[in-house]
Amino acid sequence: MKRVVITGAGTINALGHNVPDTLEAMREGRCGIGDLQFRDVDRLAIRIGGQVRGYEPETRFNRQQLSLYDRFTQFTLIAAREAIAQSGLEFSGELAARAGVVLGNSGGGMTTLDENYRSVYEDGKNRVHPFVVPKLMNNAAASHVSMEFNLKGPSFTVSTACASSNHAMAQAFQMVHGGMTPVMVTGGSESMLCFGGVKAWEGLRVMSKDGCRPFSANRNGMVQGEGAGIFVFEEYEHARARGAEILAEVAGYAMSSDAADIVMPSKQGAARAIKGALADARLNASEVGYINAHGTGTAANDKTESAAVADVFGAHADRLMISSTKSMHGHLIGGTGAVELLACILAVRDGVIAPTIGYEEPDPECALDVVPNEAREADVSVALSNAFAFGGLNAVLALKRFT
Amino acid sequence: MSSIKDRVIDIIAQQAVLDPSDVSPESTLEDLGIDSLGLVESIFAIEEEFDISVPFNANAPEESEFDISSVASIIDGIEALVKEQS
């Protein structure tokens, strides 16, 4: 089996419009969550989120592109440009024919859907722009990445709610690991911060009105974010031969299904995914220094996740660090695992553990070292990234410092 | 208000990213570099501009009642539709 390394990373999210700015915000424990700004926000009960600010689409894309790119596609392309530029790869000939793009996404072009429903239902119009369908389809972002970078191998979009990006990256890893292709572009994106998107989430009564405080006893729900995270996964020998800079090694992954409840998480399902990732990466539990938690800030997730970690790691659970960066960038749903993988790179490459901010009161049911409020320096060689989705679909990735 | 001809030419020019003076009635959409997506977008813009419905099916453009063989034929078609649907 081939070793798989990461040779490029890109992002845009509430913490920054690129990787360096995002990592700096994570080191500083900065909060990207604030008042939502979009039409009809005054009709919502939930008015906070991790919105991408100071973003001017017209400076990144021309008019023709904007008529075809929903916000989630725009974010994806911005992150892909950064990741692929960093990798230094150009896709032509045999490499182009084999390399593809697998992305995670949950809602598709929610903003496009929202605007056009409003136009036909509320404004009574009988005609919509002809590109509504190619704009809102879940695979639009993957398709535009394949077109912009000439990726002609296997490309598709994975949709498993909050675990979409982790499932996508697990799939891309497997494709490179198994020798199907030397390079895959992967990650995910989401943009549901529009009236209809937030209204739908509001209905479920799991959203916080005032902040995301994962693992804190006074947590009261999740806060949504938006953006994208994109990575270049490359076969190690291919990367080495061209002298590429290696950010980290993807050591393994596991996926599991709770087969139990459509929204409530299961400790056993989460534990099986964590244990499976360690086995796949041939790691001992004691080697794990950091876990980027799913850590949504809901009552159910955080205690279930803490219990699963305690079960898998036993006494070592008290020695490892676990933090939820959703406290800073919000929950990017289908894109969340991708942005959170950046925190794992920060841990294994730079020796900095991103904090769980907003942490106010210890919860005996989440009695782990959650790196409260301030980043910490630590020598960590292995990090896990958890994602446990609605529908009971779990995916955990293991990242290793590259040596 | 400017003529139907000028308004149609403006829409086509905008789609082709050209100055309206570079769009002549004899031009075909192909001459102007407008592809199939550009065509459906132009028809949408025309429908919006004149509040009309253009009978056009992208699966069988040549069988549509609406003649898109040149800018002039499009203008003629729009003039007829505006008259008919007003």
Which helices and strands occur, and which strands form pairs?
The complex is a heterodimer of chains A (403) and B (86).
Chain A (H helix, E strand, L loop, with lengths): L3 E10 L5 H10 L5 E2 L12 E2 L7 H4 L2 H4 L4 H17 L5 H6 L1 E5 L5 H13 L9 H5 L3 H10 L6 E3 L5 H14 L5 E8 L4 H9 L23 E9 H6 L6 E10 L9 H14 L9 E3 L6 H15 L7 E3 L2 H4 L6 H15 L1 E2 L22 E2 L4 E8 L3 E8 L3
Parallel strand pairs in A: 4-5, 4-6, 9-10, 9-13
Antiparallel strand pairs in A: 1-7, 1-8, 2-3, 6-7, 8-14, 11-12, 13-14
Helix pairs in contact in A: 4-8, 12-13
Chain B lengths: L3 H13 L19 H15 L20 H15 L1
Main location (chain A): membrane
Subcellular location (chain A): Cell inner membrane
Protein name (chain A): Nodulation protein E
What does this structure look like?
- The complex is a heterodimer of chains A (403) and B (86).
- Chain A has 15 helices and 14 strands.
- With 403 residues, chain A is α/β, with parallel strands linked by helices.
- Chain A has two domains: 4-241, Peroxisomal Thiolase, Chain A, domain 1 (3-Layer(aba) Sandwich), CATH 3.40.47; 253-400, Peroxisomal Thiolase, Chain A, domain 1 (3-Layer(aba) Sandwich).
- In chain A, strands 5-4-6-7-1-8-14-13-9-10 form a ten-stranded mixed sheet, with helices on both faces. In chain A, strands 2-3 form a two-stranded antiparallel ribbon.
- In chain A, helix 13 (299-313) links the parallel strand 9 and strand 10.
- Chain A is globular.
- Chain B is an all-alpha fold and 86 residues long.
- Chain B has a single domain, classed as Non-ribosomal Peptide Synthetase Peptidyl Carrier Protein, Chain A, CATH 1.10.1200.
- Helix content of chain B is 50%, strand content 0%.
- Chain B has three helices and no strands.
- Chain B has helices spanning 4-16, 36-50, 71-85.
- Chain B is globular and about 30 Å long.
- The mean pLDDT of chain B is 91.
- At the A-B interface, loops of A face helix 2 of B.
